[in-house]
Specification:
By secondary structure, the chain is α/β, with parallel strands linked by helices. The chain has a single domain, classed as P-loop containing nucleotide triphosphate hydrolases (Rossmann fold, 3-Layer(aba) Sandwich). The protein contains 6 helices and 10 strands. Strands 6-7-8-3-9-10 form a 6-stranded mixed sheet, with helices on both faces. A 4-stranded antiparallel sheet has the order 2-1-4-5. Helix 4 packs across helix 5. The radius of gyration is 17 Å and the shape is globular. The relative contact order is 0.21. The model has no long low-confidence stretch (mean pLDDT 92). The chain binds adenosine-5'-triphosphate and magnesium ion. The site of magnesium ion has 3 residues, from helix 1. Magnesium ion binds next to helix 1.
């Protein structure tokens, strides 16, 4: 599903070069549930960004679903992101002026779908994350766990082939964190969605079938299935 070959990524900051990804070689297979772990600053977010087409590597190739996204045009990348990839952000990225269901529907705009179909799909996604009852609430009137679940509904409404989640449970208590992980696991099993999830929480990695460990921009274990 995803194959990274010799991927490098550096950041330059006030004359310093930060090697965020160093010679990453990695294959993630369709239907896998992979966790990414490692100390702060080791490159986890950068790796997700590069694998999902949110950022481009300096060198190397990233094949996503058969296509080299490291060399794709910006137009092509944005269509790949819209069609194939879902992203759950740590800070939820909800639009405060929209209700729960509008936040989910917004991911399909602009679209050729009719409004009835958009609503049906949004309701389906909200039901999957157990948030139908809160669909007309604004984000400010939701708990952290509820906001996170709306964020998850946003990430799955277009039925992505791969879902990237960057510390999706970072702000949640253990019970809410387990709930979110169970939802991800169900999606993985029912829809075959490939999952790549960053977490600091060792108690959650039991939901996956592989854990990648990163240190200083390198994958130090788990790169092979
Ligand atoms: N836009 C940027 N400009 C400069 N340096 C950056 C940029 N983004 C990331 N970095 C640096 O690259 C390294 C990897 O950052 P990254 O965000 O991938 O780490 P992380 O493993 O996700 O950390 P955390 O667990 O804290 O989220 C860090 O040293 C960071 O300071
Ligand atoms: Mg990060």
């Amino acid at each position: 599903m995803i194959k990274c070959t010799n991927v490098q990524k550096e950041f330059r900051l006030r004359g310093n070069i930060i090697r965020a990804l160093v010679d990453i070689n990695l294959e993630i297979y369709q239907g896998e549930f992979v966790f990414v772990q490692g100390p702060t600053g080791c490159g986890k977010t950068t790796l997700l960004n590069v694998m999902s087409g949110l950022d481009v590597p300096d060198d190397g190739s990233v094949i996503l679903d058969g296509e080299d996204i490291a060399r794709a045009s910006e137009d092509r990348l944005s269509s790949i992101r819209r069609q194939k990839v879902g992203f759950v952000f740590q800070d939820f990225n909800l639009i405060e002026s929209l209700t729960g269901i509008e936040n989910v529907e917004a991911l399909l705009w602009p679209t050729v779908l009719r409004s009835k179909e958009i609503e049906d799909r949004a309701i389906q996604a909200l039901r999957a994350v157990d948030m139908l009852e809160r669909k007309d609430h604004y984000p400010r009137d939701m708990s952290g766990g509820e906001r996170q679940r709306i964020g998850l509904a946003r990430a799955i409404i277009h039925q992505p082939r791969v879902l990237f989640a960057d510390e999706p449970t970072g702000n949640l208590d253990p019970e809410a964190a387990n709930h979110v992980l169970k939802l991800l696991k169900d999606l993985n099993q029912d829809m075959g969605t490939t999952m790549v999830v960053v977490t600091h929480d060792n108690s959650l990695t039991k939901y996956g079938n592989r854990t990648l460990k990163m240190e200083r921009g390198r994958i130090v274990s788990g790169s092979k299935k």
